[in-house]
Write a structure and sequence with these properties.
The chain is an alpha/beta fold and about 500 residues long. Helix content is about 40%, strand content about 15%. About 40% of the residues are buried.
């Protein structure tokens, strides 16, 4: 009998949501309890590693229980891991760094890996925080599997694509790994042991909720977005396999698709909807969408299959603005899509940004109020326009002198509190003015008698009522925020 190959114990961790840099949405809409999504990235990674390697894998999510960094570290160490993998966005890198430092202080021998969108966006700075021994960028499945094999055998990760590491104190970048082209070849995400009754988004109407990622990347090129452009999609059958498992194995009643672009084509939405109907999967669902790939027939079939809400990225209220942010849409098309959605009996949610670079005065911003009255969505999700650090619009702002080009790089090297980071576009209006405008447009929509009555009339049960009340309280709290309070 050949000898058993050595293995390691890995804990994959979604760290606490503390110390997060504000990014477009004030804390009243984005605090610890505003929404709690399952950590789909590490859930998918855990499933792959369990199916394809000999290594033991545990999955922990610190966010539903509001665990502190210290409590999270105790729970991680109770698993007696050899390696811990921490996922992070750039805006959450301070929390991830705090988590790594807490673990390192308790277990100096622990090997700690950083992954997630931050590493993919800024691989050259991913190991600026010394507590991280390794970083993995891009699709993490194969790089992490190879890294664990190498560590179990006592070697270093030389030559493993997608892995960054240190040799003699210097960072070594092994280069990017090939992305996973066939997403159907991946196992369904690992959901065992997660608190499914504590995950939710503000728009959910059922009790037990989860999310699904049906694709990776986005083919569009909006100037404010930092999503990778290489687009790959799972088949309709594979997606509905996951929906069926969620329903039958975990008692999940509602799914929110968090694809960056679910309706990459009309046919894709039709295929998924028809597969749901063919297999008789009974579940409510919603998705994020562009106004570009929408037809009445697509909406009717999706509605029959359980789709009850669509989150449309509208962003701004004029053709000039849509052109400026490269949306490849016009206002007439947006109105047409919201009319079709309304006629299909599907709830519409409009995502809007306040303080875009093309909005040069308060009057420009406030034109959103009559625009939205005529658009007539069920809900609006406003955010203040935020120059994400790895986007074209951030580079334009740096060229204008609105901020230093390396301001985020300095923060990544030492993510301490109190660092002033560019979170709004200040070429034309200052932060207090933008906050006041943000409050005014929210008030104009949500305090409208028509919207209040429609929302109250549409409440479908206790879970829905709880979320409506929580959302209403957030809008009320927003009006109390004072300029200069540091809460935006």
């Amino acid at each position: 009998m050949p000898p058993t190959k050595p293995s390691v114990k890995l804990v994959l961790l979604n760290p606490p949501k503390f110390h997060q840099v504000w990014a477009g949405v004030p804390d009243v809409f984005n605090d610890q309890r505003a929404h709690i999504y399952p950590p789909m990235g590490i859930m998918q990674l855990a499933a792959f590693l369990k199916a394809s390697t000999r290594h033991a894998v545990a999955l922990l999510d610190a966010q539903p229980g509001l665990w502190s960094h210290e409590d999270t570290a105790a729970r991680v160490l109770a698993e007696r891991p050899d390696v811990v993998g921490i996922t992070a966005t750039t805006h959450a890198i301070r929390s991830a760094a705090t988590m790594a430092r807490t673990l390192r202080a308790a277990r100096p021998d622990l090997r700690i890996v950083l992954g997630g969108p931050h590493v993919s966006a800024f691989p050259e700075h991913a190991l600026a925080i010394p507590e991280f021994d390794f970083a993995v960028r891009g699709d993490a499945e194969r790089p992490v599997a190879a890294l664990l094999d190498r560590l179990a055998e006592g070697g270093d990760p030389s030559g493993i694509p997608g892995v960054l590491w240190r040799r003699d104190g210097a960072v070594v970048d092994n280069g990017p790994a090939e992305p996973v082209e066939d997403l159907d070849a991946l196992p369904l995400p690992h959901r065992e042991g997660l608190p499914h009754d504590r995950y939710y988004t503000p728009a959910n109407i059922r009790g037990r909720t989860s999310t699904i990622i049906g694709s990776r990347g986005c083919p569009n090129q909006c100037v404010f977005c930092n999503v990778p452009h290489k687009f790959r999609a799972r088949s309709a059958a594979h997606i509905v396999d996951e929906m069926a498992e969620c329903a039958t194995r975990y008692g999940i009643e509602e799914i929110h698709f968090i694809d960056d672009l679910f309706n990459s084509s009309v046919q894709r939405v039709m295929d998924i909807s028809e597969e749901i109907l063919r297999r008789g999967v009974k579940m409510l669902w919603g998705y994020k969408a562009s106004c570009r790939n929408v037809t009445p027939e697509m909406l009717r079939v999706a509605k029959r299959a359980g789709c009850y809400r669509i989150h449309y990225g509208v962003e701004t209220h004029s053709d000039e603005g849509l052109l400026a942010i490269n949306k490849k849409l016009d206002v007439a098309r947006i109105h047409e899509v919201f009319r079709m959605t309304r006629e299909a009996g599907v709830v519409s949610i409009a995502y809007m940004m306040v303080g875009c670079p093309h909005e040069k005065s308060p009057e420009d911003v406030l034109r959103a109020i009559p625009f939205l009255r005529s658009l007539d969505p069920n809900y609006v999700v406003y955010s203040l326009f935020t120059p994400y650090p790895d986007t074209e619009i951030f580079r334009q702002g740096a060229a204008l002198g609105l901020w230093d080009a390396d301001v985020w790089i300095r923060f990544m090297r030492d993510p301490q509190p109190g660092v002033k980071l560019p979170t709004v576009w200040t070429q034309w209006m200052d932060e207090p003015t933008l906050l006041d405008l943000f409050k005014r447009v929210n008030r104009a929509f949500y305090f409208s008698p028509r919207v209040l009555w429609r929302t109250a009339r549409g409440i479908s049960g206790p879970a829905h009522l709880t979320r409506v009340l929580r959302g209403g309280l957030s809008v009320a709290k927003l009006q109390l925020i004072r300029p200069g309070s540091g809460r935006i």
